[in-house]
Amino acid sequence: MSRMHTMWLSAGLMMALAVPGFSQNAQITGLVKDSSDAAISGATVTVSNVQTGLTRSMVTSTEGYYTAPLLPRGTYTISVAAPGFKTSKSPALTLEEGQILRFDVRLEIGQVTESIEVVAQAGLLSTETTSVSSVVPNQRVVDLPLLGRNPLALANLVPGVRPVGQFGTLTVSSFDGSRTSISGGSPSTNNYMVDGVAAENFASGGIQITLSPDATEEFRIITRNPSAEFGRTGGGVINMVSKAGTNEWRASAFEFLRNKVLNANSFFNNFAGTSRPPFIFNQYGATAGGPVKRNKTFFFFNWEKVAQRTLDQAFRSVPAEEQRRGDFSQTLDTSGRLVAIYDPLTTRPDPNRPGNQVRSVFAGNLIPANRISPVARAVTGYYPSPNLPGTPLTRTNNLFGQASAPVNKDVYGIRIDHHFSESRRIFGRYTYDETFRGAANFYGNEAEINTSDLPFKRNSGVVSYIETLRPDLLLETRAGVNRYFTPRVTRSFGFDVTRLGMNALVNSQMQVPSFPRFNVGDMTAIGAAADDQLIQTNDSYTAFSEGCRNSGNGVLGAIPLISQIG
C-alpha cells in the first residue's frame, strides 16, 4: 500500500465515528442446503428487485452461505440454481430500510431446468441483529389520518416514543421544543437521518426537515440497541427514506379542506359575545413518478402546499380611557380598595421612622397633565382601547383580541435513480420546504408583544453511488446536506426611539433597533421581547465512502475511507 493510500485510510478511520451507510441500505443473507441439510457450495443466487428490475448475482461459499449487501429497500425475489438440483424461486419479499433479512433455501435433487416456486413459508424473523426497531411503511403513512400530514406523527404510536412540544405537527418539528424522548433518553440526544444524511437540529435537538407523506417510502425507529454504524445518539434513531420511481407509472393528486362550518364556538367567544372565528385549512398537492428509461432510470416528484387562515385569541389588560389621561380615581385592587398613586416629587424623610422616606398621594388620585411623561404618553398611545368591562373591581382583562395567524407551506421534492449496469447505480434527491408561520398582532401595530412572523426555509439533498468493484467487494459513496434556516426579523426592526420622545443616543445602544419593551405593573407589557429577532442557521453535512467485503459467509466488515458528519 502506498504512503498516500495509508494516509487516506488512517484519516478515514479517525473520522469514522459513525458511518451511516449500511443503515440506509438493506441486506439479504442465508444458507443454501440440500434435503439432508448439507451445505451446497458454488450455487448461484440471484436477487432481483421487482419494481426496478435491479439484479445481483453471487455464489455461495464453501459453507453454503450467501450475502447480498447494500440493497435499496423494496420488494425482491430470490432465485437459487446449482448443478444437479432444481432451481428454487422465492415469493416476493419486502426488504425494509436497514433490515438484514435471513432467507435460507433448501434445494431438491433434479435438473436445473426444473424449478420449484416457494408459495408459503413461516414468518421471517430478524435473527441477524439485536436492535429493537419498528418500521412505519408507506401504506400506513399515506392511509392513516394525519392532521397536518407530518409522517413523524406516526412515530408517537411506537412503544417507547414520547413526543415533546409540537413534535409531529404541521408547521415544524424542530422548533417550539418539538422533540421526542425514545426509550427514556433525553429528547435532545436522538439521531435523526433523512436518506442516511444527518438531520439533527443542534440548537433544539429536533429534526431539521421531514419529507411529505407522499414522498416517504418508510421510516425506521430504533428504540433499543442501535448498531455501532449509527452513533451520535443517547436515545434512539429515526431514519426517513424517500420514495423512488419504479418501472410502473404512477401519479396522484389530493386536497384536504376544513373550515368553520362544523366548528363549535369556544367558551371565551361566547363569553365575549363574539361569533365563531373564521377558519380555513387547505392542503393540496400532487405526485408523479415512473421510468425515464425502463430498468435504467427512474424519477419521483412531489409537490405540496398548505394555506391555513384562522384567528388567534387572547385576553389583555390595557389602560382605560381615564387612566390614559392620568385619572386613577377608579383604579381598585381585588378588595375594592383604591390603588394610591404617589407623587415622587414629594419624597421626604419620615419623621416617625428615621432612615425611611414617605411620599404624598396625588390629590384625588389624579396625575396633572403637565406631570405625565411625554415618553409614557407616547407609549400608551400604542395600546388599543379596551373592548370589555374587564373583571370586577380591577377591570383587568378588558381587551379581547382576535388577530390573524396565517400558516403557509410549500414543499417541492425530486428524486432521480439511475442504474448504469447491474453493478453500478446512483441516486440523488433534493427537497425544498418553505414554511411561514404568521404571529397574531393583537395590538395591531409594531408594539405587539407576541413574537414576530417566523419563516422556515429548509433544504435537503443527497447523492449516493454504489458499485460492485468485484464479486466480493462493494463500494458506496454518499454525500448530503440538510439546512434549516429561520430568518425572523422583529416587526419593529429599525424603529427610531425618538418617536417616543427618547434620546437619539438610545438608538446606538440597542443591539437590535426595535420598539423598546415596557413592563407595566397590572397591565400587559408592550414592545418587542429581547429575543424576538432570530436569525438562525443549522447545517448538517454527511460525507463518507466505504468498502464492503463479502466472503459469502457474511459481510466481514466495512472499511470507511472518508467520513464526516457535522
Walk me through the topology.
Blueprint: H1 3-15, H2 21-24, E1 26-33, E2 44-49, E3 55-59, E4 65-71, E5 74-81, E6 87-89, E7 93-95, E8 100-102, E9 105-106, E10 115-117, E11 132-137, H3 138-143, E12 161-164, E13 179-182, E14 191-194, E15 197-198, E16 216-224, E17 237-242, E18 250-259, H4 267-272, E19 279-293, E20 297-316, H5 321-324, E21 342-349, E22 357-361, H6 374-380, E23 399-404, E24 407-421, E25 424-437, E26 454-470, E27 473-488, H7 505-509, E28 534-550, E29 555-565
Parallel strand pairs: 1-8, 1-9, 6-10, 14-17
Antiparallel strand pairs: 1-4, 2-3, 2-5, 5-6, 5-7, 11-16, 12-13, 14-15, 16-17, 18-19, 19-20, 20-23, 20-24, 21-22, 24-25, 25-26, 26-27, 27-28, 28-29
